[in-house]
Design a protein that fits this description.
Strand content: under 5%
Order of helices and strands: HHHHHHHHHEHHEE
Number of domains: 3
Largest sheet: 3 strands, antiparallel
Shape: rod-shaped
Structural class: mainly alpha
CATH class of the largest domain: Mainly Alpha
CATH architecture of the largest domain: Orthogonal Bundle
Strand order of the largest sheet: 1-3-2
Distance between the termini: 74 Å
CATH topology of the largest domain: Helix Hairpins
């Protein structure tokens, strides 16, 4: 073959290779994006979990707000009730003051009547004493003896005058005595009425005092209830604020995950394009130099599980979340539980299916910490190594399907019910 013909053939071959790798580049981009979808799917699952959690927390927040509203309404009712008690108490106090005034006035009236009665008694005593003195005087002078008056008188007219005089004195004394006695009786009757009215006023005052004491007790009770409700409201407001901050943090985390998802998609496309171009250039160089080297980069797998792209990172992230501070044997044991579940008919037959099964691995289905570690590649080298031994070397350290902390295993009786179980570090595997 001539040199020109050989050169033409080589040029045609290079063009063919260029066209071939242009097509392959497009296929590689599609495959790379599809492979990158595992990470994207993880982030999408995380986003879905966060959105579900936000919905749950917002429902809880709504219940907290309704409870807070109910407490505030109850407190308002108590305050209104307290105000009514205060009004009633004020009326009772006004009534007590009025009764005190009336009792004081009644006491003054009784005092005045008593003074009048005392004065009448004194006048009665004076009248009685004067009458006795007059009688004594008449008796000592013999004027009370009508016979002596008759014999000692000079004429009939003198006798009649003496008799009339004595009779008038006796009648006067009798009238005065009757008048004083009648006045005293009237005063005593008035005094009795006043005393009775005073007793009635005292009873009314006592009733009002009892009512006031009852109102004070009710107000004290209402005050305690208002204070209690105020404390409950403060606590509810604090919890509502924390819940609002928690939800806000979730929204920020959701935004962060969405940015990561967008970045992963963009990065995956860019990496795929760059890798396709690089491989195309390398292959063109090898073909141009007459090289045809076949390379194999697939790692040998001795286990019966077909490792999928991203499985290594996912298992390493779970091992990190569950056993980052545990000994290496504990890390292998966590990976063993995952692989035993994949092999069991009682669990999903894929790594993703086992890890995302509800309420099985709390960092995945409860706290979401697994997704953060996976997205940021925070797993340690020892966790990667343990995951590699489990996935690629087929290492299995037991037949366990479950594990929990030793404390939890003791509290739930798992250690007693599973004597075949093994304690490794702070975990009980069974």
């Amino acid at each position: 073959m001539s040199a020109n013909k050989r050169k033409l053939v080589n040029m045609d071959k290079h063009k063919l290779v260029a066209v071939f790798f242009t097509i392959c580049m497009g296929l590689f981009v599609a495959v790379s994006v599809h492979g990158g979808n595992n990470k994207q799917e993880d982030i999408s699952n995380s986003i879905g979990n966060v959105q579900d959690n936000i919905q749950i927390q917002e429902s809880i927040q709504k219940e907290m707000e309704e409870e807070l509203k109910r407490l505030e309404e109850y407190k308002d009712d108590l305050v209104e009730y307290m105000n009514e008690l205060n009004k009633t108490y004020q009326k009772v106090q006004d009534e007590i003051i009025s009764l005190d005034v009336r009792i004081s006035e009644k006491n003054e009236q009784i005092k005045e009547i008593q003074d009048t009665l005392d004065k009448q008694n004194i006048e009665l005593d004076d009248q009685y004493r004067d009458m006795k003195l007059r009688i004594q005087y008449l008796y000592e002078n013999g004027e009370l003896d009508y016979a002596m008056a008759f014999l000692s008188s000079g004429s009939l007219s003198e006798i009649l005058n003496k008799v009339e005089y004595i009779s008038s004195l006796v009648e006067y004394d009798r009238q005065m005595m009757d008048k004083y006695m009648e006045t005293i009786a009237t005063i005593e009757f008035i005094m009795a009425d006043l005393v009775e009215e005073q007793l009635e006023l005292e009873l009314l005052k006592e009733e009002q005092n009892v009512k006031a004491a009852e109102l004070i007790a009710l107000m004290d009770e209402a005050s305690v209830n208002i204070k209690d409700k105020s404390e409950q409201i403060n606590q509810a407001e604090s919890e509502a604020l924390k819940k609002e901050e928690e939800i806000q943090s979730m929204y920020e985390y959701l935004e962060y995950l969405e940015e990561i998802e967008s970045s992963i998609i963009e990065q995956s496309i860019q990496e795929s394009i760059s890798e396709s171009i690089r491989q195309s250039e390398e292959e063109s160089s090898r073909l141009a130099a007459g090289e045809n080297i076949e390379e194999t980069t697939t790692k040998k797998v001795v286990s019966d599980y077909v490792v999928q792209e991203g499985d290594l990172e996912k298992l390493a992230a779970l091992i990190y979340c569950e056993a980052s501070v545990e000994p290496y044997e504990g890390k292998l044991a966590v990976g063993t539980v995952v692989m035993n579940r994949i092999k069991s008919r009682s669990f999903p037959n894929t790594l993703d299916g086992v890890l995302t099964q509800p309420y099985q691995f709390s960092p995945v289905s409860v706290s979401g910490r697994y997704y953060i570690v996976l997205a940021n590649k925070k797993y340690s080298k020892s966790c990667i190594k343990a995951a590699e031994e489990i996935l690629y070397d087929g290492v299995r350290t037991g037949n366990w399907h479950f594990f929990r902390t030793v404390k939890s295993a003791i509290n739930t009786g798992k250690i007693e019910s599973h004597p075949e179980g093994v304690i490794i570090g702070d975990h009980f595997f069974y």
